[in-house]
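Let's study a protein:

===
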Amino acid sequence: MPCALKRRRSSPSRCGTIAASGPRWSRPPRCRSTERTDMPMPQTELSTLPPSRASAPEATRAERALPPVPPQALASARDTAALARLAQQARADLARLNWPVPDWSLPAAQPGGGHALDVLIAGAGMCGQTAAFALMREGIGRIRLIDRAARGQEGPWGTYARMLTLRSPKHLTGPDLGVPSLSFRAWYEAQHGADGWAALHKVGRLDWRDYLLWVRETVGLPVENGVQLLDVAHEGPLLRVRLHGPQGEEIAYTRKLVLALGRDGSGAPRWPHYPSLRRDDPLAAGRVFHSADAIDFAALAGRHVGVLGVGASAFDNAACALEAGARVTQFARRAQLPQVNKSKWTSFPGFFHGFERLDDAQRWRFYTYIFSEQVPPPWETVRRCDAHAAFSLQLGQNWLDVAPDAHGVRVTTPQGQQRFDAVIFGTGFDVNLLDRPELAPYVNAIDTWAQHVSADEAAGHAEAARFPYLGPGFELRAKAGQPQEVAQALARMHLFNWGSTLSHGALAGDIPGLGIGARRLAAAIASDLFTLDAQAHWQRLLAHDEPELKDTRWYVPPPTQP
């Protein structure tokens, strides 16, 4: 009986190192996987449609020689002794900046006794750990930083990300929060020297993962792995959160909640809808994947794989399938690939600092334009696929239907039907708070951009209209007419992920703006905690009696209280 490709819940994704060799790539080693299927997948009959290597004119391709692709690697060699020395230097640098900063926030009593957290951060990936670091630098130390994943699997870097290197330039900073010895460059140069840094093209994906772990350990961030936020409710001035961890369920109380749940933290993977496809169809299991799924690429060797989409993740998954020995046909509705990354233009301090202060019409105009232009895949990623004779790209062909069966998957396009052993949706992530179970009691009360633009604009940009409409500190806001206690509860929740983009710009997901975003978040929470306790701080001010002139002859003792 034909068997389907197994879907793995979580395992690291590794793809081969790419080395430059002339104007085209040499064939890279195959993607590897930690799990294989026990039975071979069935071969499908090949499409009756002639495969197209690309929709671009062949003459154009032949007329100009393409430049060589710089060497790329998932990870570099580790020098643990050098990293230990750098960590010691970084801690000394932090001490010069008065680290650790003493806690100043006042404890809040919680039901049943004890004190509530000041901040619970759900998600300990790049954004979550940088937010925690920023909060601790502001003297807010009564925090918990949780992640449901195991150590090293927080975020996409060791799981469903399948690029060889980051998209961003190697020089960008963010998780270091301005401490030079905590920067990626310092981390890399400590192990490979200045010459190694100069020779590096872009940051290896697993290097970035390991760098984030090193920052976490060097700074001493209190990450709790294997702990998941299940839901949240308000109880008086606090948020009551239900967590699940290694010891089972627990209830915790916090004054503030930061949701740093990653790219899909404001929604879910975007699954296209087709007449013949149900996600719960047993025939789809192991044959129909999203690019965010754990996929055993080794089981695709010798098979025919269809990939939908031409974004970066679509090309990354196509490359891993090719490197595993599959034949890949990739499809897109567009007649040509996007050519210019408009979002790259926004990566400068003026935009990061000023965007949130623009009026709604200006913010809406900026990002609906950027979204509509779409982001091209990195050129290195395209060349990674184009190096394979088994790769074809069919532009201007949308998928009209996807029908899994016992022998594979039948895909219908305007040009006819094609059969595949498996298909992968490289369709990205949707923003829709209805998909977030943690916020279920509040989703209908949360303000979104749909309430701040015309009905025509909202209909014309449906996904942008679903983005939450956040306050200046990334806090959720309530729709007009919601009860006061609901509005106050939402103001205690801060969304620090991709869902904040339409309100703040790309400060909570992309590396260039991360440092500015984390500092803004921490400053807003510090301000809120102080203002909430302003009366208690006033009393502390009145009680403050540290004498300055006690060691001079001008000292005057305070009057004796009757």
